[in-house]
Amino acid sequence: MMPGWSPSMKVLGMDWSKRHRESEVSCNIDDFVDNANVDSSRFVVVHGAGSFGHFQASISGVHKGGLDQSLVKASFVATRISVTTLNLEVVRALAREGIPSIGMSPFSCGWSTYEKNITSADLAAVAKAIDSGFIPVLHGDAVLDELQTDVLGVYDRPPIEPNAVLLREIAVGKNGKWSVVKPVLQNMDKQGVKTTAAAHDTTGGMETKIAEAAMIARLGIDVYIVKAATNHALKALSGELRDNIPDDWSGTVIRFVS
């Protein structure tokens, strides 16, 4: 509700658009003649995609990347059409209640991610809208990812770096400390692994991911990090790797060693 609003006050609807199969706008423009100024609060509305967008995105797995493929690119377009359609309906609903709302898409505002973590979130346009007396309405959106890496497991450094090595087996001791067993690195502990979180990595970087897996491994439960929909994943799911990791298996297993 807007400051100073009461149930007895007349709502000045702001949806002057002509909707499909409607010949006239749903609001009375003449009501604004004697109400030049509309007070508004300084806040932002954010809504998700709901049932909009997820269906289109799941058809091609657009969240996994691959915009060089025509199907993925078409799915990206279809997803954005769907989520912006929902956003328009939310904005219209607010406008009909006299709230000066403005739909703002993260994609159009220049937001981007790196491996699904936000790297760019320019809020200048949002702040300007608020300062101008509007209510920004942001929504769940499809944005471009600077690098969508599809890898086999955990590496000793970012897999895009030259000479990155796949860590095939990590041992966890009783104290929770872990070390790389296969392959044999120059330093036989985590010091041989680049675990520093990048500035854009809101999940804490690779060290946090391994630490969380190590907590599970301490319970005697092997943890497999492997590329989905591959024979390597099938072997992990079927239990073939419980006693031995074959040389032709590509992935990372994290297990407790007493």
TrEMBL record:
Name this protein carries in UniProt: Aspartate/glutamate/uridylate kinase domain-containing protein
One Pfam family it belongs to: AA_kinase
GO CC annotations, alphabetized: cytosol
Keywords assigned: ATP-binding, Kinase, Nucleotide-binding, Transferase
Domain Aspartate/glutamate/uridylate kinase, first and last residues per copy: 39-146, 149-226
Species of provenance: Quercus rubra
Gene Ontology biological process terms in this record: terpenoid biosynthetic process
GO molecular function: ATP binding; isopentenyl phosphate kinase activity; kinase activity
Taxonomic lineage from the root: Eukaryota, Viridiplantae, Streptophyta, Embryophyta, Tracheophyta
Source species, domain of life: Eukaryota
Database matches in InterPro entries: AceGlu_kinase-like_sf, Asp/Glu/Uridylate_kinase
